[in-house]
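lol ok so funny story. i was supposed to be doing the assay writeup but got distracted and ended up predicting the structure for this chain instead. priorities right. anyway since i did it might as well share w the group, maybe its usefull for someone
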Amino acid sequence: MKKLGIWLATGLGIGLIPWAPGTFGSIAGVFISVGIMNLPSPHWLAATAVLFAAGAWSCGQAYRHFKADAPCIVMDEIMGQFIACFGFHDRPLWLIASFILFRIFDVTKPGPIGYLDRRIKGGLGVYIDDVAAGLITFVILHGLSRILI
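and the output, tada:
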């Protein structure tokens, strides 16, 4: 089970890319979001729940193995980006905007994102700041889309 957790946490190996693994994890999150959102609603809801739970579990497994938030752990970026893209699966420009804004929040960790990153340790700490960055990106972009469209 430990190997499975680490494999999932590395995004099935995406996190092993030697440069910008978090960016590649975010790109995977965009594609996973588009794929899942095109499923019928009961299926995308179930897939989202499984992805969320698997991400939390695998980040915990990987944190215990690496004893840190290692750069190869990208399941947190995948889930955060997935959340940021939610509902934009058929709008390419909004997907690009969600990618850019999420990456900015993930790297700079402003406000509550940084607070969570500093305060919560372990596997949950690895995961929760990216989930928060995804949620904040989601709220901002959906608010903008309501105003602009």
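The chain has a mean pLDDT of 95. The chain has one domain: 2-148.
back to the writeup now i swear
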